[in-house]
């Protein structure tokens, strides 16, 4: 008889978020999110084009050019970036496909730290905790401040290891 170590709840639900991310067809990043009330899974989502619309793997990324001021070696520099606007973020899909009553007091597990727009939406959704693995440095300080202001627990699972073969399949 083999004995295996039972996963803790954080690992279990983050594993499910990473599994949801495998549904994404985004060539840039696969993101998954799950909604949990207590120990009950209430919904899952991933990033992708709206239902019935060709996704990035079929129609290509819909890129827009943006400019951002960054500090580089103590000097401000204008940096050009491209951002895909075809994709609905995993957190947005999660909110679209779950009920407000289910979100009240719930936790969202998401593979990546939410961007500013998703953080705003989550802050207004009724959830009380966000758990993530990978950071999103661009919006991190603003998002952390927002969560503190709202009283939403916001934590990174730094010691978490995604299931073998799943995180490696997600573009960086």
UniProtKB/TrEMBL annotation:
<dbReference type="InterPro" id="IPR035105">
    <property type="entry name" value="Deoxycytidylate_deaminase_dom"/>
</dbReference>
<dbReference type="Pfam" id="PF00383">
    <property type="entry name" value="dCMP_cyt_deam_1"/>
</dbReference>
<keyword id="KW-0378">Hydrolase</keyword>
<dbReference type="InterPro" id="IPR015517">
    <property type="entry name" value="dCMP_deaminase-rel"/>
</dbReference>
<dbReference type="InterPro" id="IPR016193">
    <property type="entry name" value="Cytidine_deaminase-like"/>
</dbReference>
<dbReference type="InterPro" id="IPR002125">
    <property type="entry name" value="CMP_dCMP_dom"/>
</dbReference>
<feature type="domain" description="CMP/dCMP-type deaminase">
    <location>
        <begin position="8"/>
        <end position="154"/>
    </location>
</feature>
<keyword id="KW-0479">Metal-binding</keyword>
<dbReference type="InterPro" id="IPR016473">
    <property type="entry name" value="dCMP_deaminase"/>
</dbReference>
<protein>
    <submittedName>
        <fullName>Cytidine/deoxycytidylate deaminase family protein</fullName>
    </submittedName>
</protein>
<keyword id="KW-0862">Zinc</keyword>
<dbReference type="InterPro" id="IPR016192">
    <property type="entry name" value="APOBEC/CMP_deaminase_Zn-bd"/>
</dbReference>
<comment type="similarity">
    <text>Belongs to the cytidine and deoxycytidylate deaminase family.</text>
</comment>
């Amino acid at each position: 008889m083999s004995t295996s170590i039972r996963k803790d709840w954080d690992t279990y639900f983050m594993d499910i978020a990473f599994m949801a991310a495998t549904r994404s067809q985004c060539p840039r990043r696969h993101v998954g999110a799950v909604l949990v009330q207590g120990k009950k899974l209430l919904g899952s989502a991933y990033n992708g084009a709206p239902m019935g619309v060709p996704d990035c793997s079929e129609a290509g990324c819909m890129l827009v050019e943006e400019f951002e001021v960054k500090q580089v070696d103590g000097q401000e520099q204008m940096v050009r970036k491209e951002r895909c606007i075809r994709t609905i973020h995993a957190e947005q899909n999660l909110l679209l496909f779950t009920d407000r009553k289910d979100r009240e007091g719930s936790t969202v597990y998401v593979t990546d730290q939410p961007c500013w727009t998703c953080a705003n939406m989550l802050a207004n959704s009724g959830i009380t905790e966000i758990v993530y693995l990978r950071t999103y440095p661009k919006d991190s300080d603003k998002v952390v401040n927002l969560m503190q202001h709202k009283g939403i627990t916001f934590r990174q699972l730094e010691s978490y290891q995604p299931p073998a073969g799943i995180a490696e399949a997600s573009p960086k």
